[in-house]
Amino acid sequence: MAKKMAEKRGRPRKAGGSKVARRKIIPYGTRMIAEASLETVPNNSLQRDYEVSFTIAEFTCVCPRSGFPDFATIRIRYVPDRRLIELRSLKLYINGYRDVAIFHEAVVNTILDDFVAAADPKWVEIIGDFNVRGNIKTVVTATHTKRRTAGVQRKSLKRRGK
After folding, report:
1. Topology of 27-159 in CATH?
2. What residues form DSSP beta bridges with 40?
3. Is 120 a catalytic residue?
4. Catalytic residue among 49, 61, 70, 114
5. In the beta sheet, which residues pair with residue 21?
6. Which of 74, 89, 122, 126 is most buried by its number of CB atoms within 10 A?
């Protein structure tokens, strides 16, 4: 029936159905992961140091040599300064590695660099505990400690009487 109506209007009917059927629909989760970046929120407890820890049990990336998937548990511990990492953005950011070809050492250090760039914590440790592959278990640990400014160091030396 649709074919006859299209022919009556002088337009040939296109094969393959409607435009909606031919358009590639990207699931919203895939789109959110592709657009993800680490976001922060203010730390409202600046009066004390405290530790925040995350365990990401289903981390995946791809071995750049073989193309096989690598699985890991990523553990993040940090002492925040003025900014906290927003958890939803962390989840989406981490999921963005699932199709990335990257070595274990590189991925842990990249996560650390991005974390420091986003939150500028006083201290952070990232541990990538990768599943056994080829009879070898890999655990990569990378840390960062915020450097004190020269003014802060001088004040602390004065208090000690030096």
Report:
1. GTP Cyclohydrolase I, domain 2 (3.30.1130)
2. 85
3. no
4. 70
5. none
6. 126
